[in-house]
What we know:
The chain has helices at residues 23-30, 35-48, 58-83; strands spanning 8-12, 15-19.
Amino acid sequence: xxxxxNQVVANYKGELYNLPFNMNTFYQMWGVKNPExxxxxxxxxxxxxxxxxxxxxxxxxxxxxxxxxxYHKLIKGYTEKQWGRKATDLPSFxxxxxxxxxxxxxxxxxx
Length: 111
């Protein structure tokens, strides 16, 4: 188990994205190259979605964490199929379990 790296890749209509959400994902999605650019893009999408204050449901929490583009491509459909409910009907805490990193580290675990 020494130096084990769990690298996860999501396939969305033939487009491959690194998970957990990290700078590689943000670069693949938006072409941003540093954490400040990624955070600004997420904040821009959060504001455009009209989310302010404490997120009320999983959809608002996800958009607050990773923006609307990533939410719609990699979270919404999977989550709604998995839970059998709309993301707007699910509690916000569920999505907080997924890591979001502002580094180029593809390892799913912090070990």
